[in-house]
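Moderator note: this is an archived Q&A kept for reference. The question asked for a predicted structure of one protein chain; the sequence and the answer are reproduced below.
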Amino acid sequence: MLIILLVLLICIDIYIFKIVNKDYLSPSLITCCIYTVGTFFSILGNKKWEGNITFLTVLVIVTAVIFTLIGEIIIRGKWNNNNNNNNNKFNYKIIDIPLFITIIILGVSILACIYNYQNIREYLISDDNFSLFYLRNMMLNGNIQNNFILVILSFFAQAAGYIYLYIFITNTLLIGIKNCLRKYFIHLIAVLPLIFLTIISTSRTGYINIFVFILVVYLLQSKRIGDKNFSMFNVVKKVILAIVAFFIIFSFIGELRNIEEKDTENYFVLYAGSPIVALNSYLNEYIGPNDIFGEETLAGLRGTMNKFIPNIEQGNFFLEYTYFSNGDSTNVYSLIRSLIADYGYIGFMCMEIMIGIFYMCFLVIVRNKNYILFDIYFAMFIYYLVQQLFTPTIFTSFMSITQIALFAFIFFINFILKFSKKIKIRLN
């Protein structure tokens, strides 16, 4: 059934690609591609796990894609003409930022890195070796405390990193990588604190977020600016290169986290392929929705509300583990599991439609309004769509205090850059 699911999803990928007029940022296309990748890795790991899937799981995954497409078509059918007409409306210039502003922002970001390093230095050294594995255990156990100043500085550095990454990609498309490195190398330097903070966070999702952000900004700006090299072949080539690069980094991080080299490939297959098989196990044992409304999907919102209204029940961020025949285990089931667990099958289909509507509305706004802030938020929100293979972050993360704070700092830094009156993004 896994092979049948893979063939079905590939066919749906092709169909969606045609009906959305080769729009690489189509929410239903991204959704279908993500589950296609997950199914592919499930096939690779199936011999070890002995965890084939049932027809129910095939039906549910295909339904998720189709209903996301329905939501997208509702908006696309109404606004597609305006969207297409406005793509070539803007004339772009280099995004230039006063050097002293960049130096100040970079200085604060470096301070955040130093402060973070000082805070975790003793945990990075384990038996005279650099150990992210030990650090991660300390974080998960709550042994590392971050004070208010450290948290503020970290949010600032991350927000600045995403803004300058956006600027560097845009300028590269306008004047080429060599000219951009020569004239705006400091913009790339301003991204490094974000990379450093991602590494010491010990989280895998941070790397996915950055890769997705880069890819989305490239796709968005290439079409706007009219990149001569923008084509389906080049896009596919860049996606493949990005996946290869991500695998290399994933392997390197695995070694830093004390995952044996011989197990790195298996670890990647388990991470990317197990959600489909785990979802199958859940669906076969499904007995009805959770007693608490939005227990899994609204966990972030519940956590935020609980800080102000103590009697609000906390959501469930950490799901039970599913064990495979070879001893491997996972507690990631995809967004689909959480939607069904919280709202039942009917609610699941309704929520998929709403996801398609939300992302298509966001895409229409971004395509018709040439604002840095909207672009950055959109590129970050696409990460949640990609991450749906693993967790319901579409709902849990951006409703959390952490994500709200990050978006607020992006807004704040963008305001500072705008206030400098040196950034010229669009010409009428």
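Archived answer notes: The radius of gyration is 22 Å.
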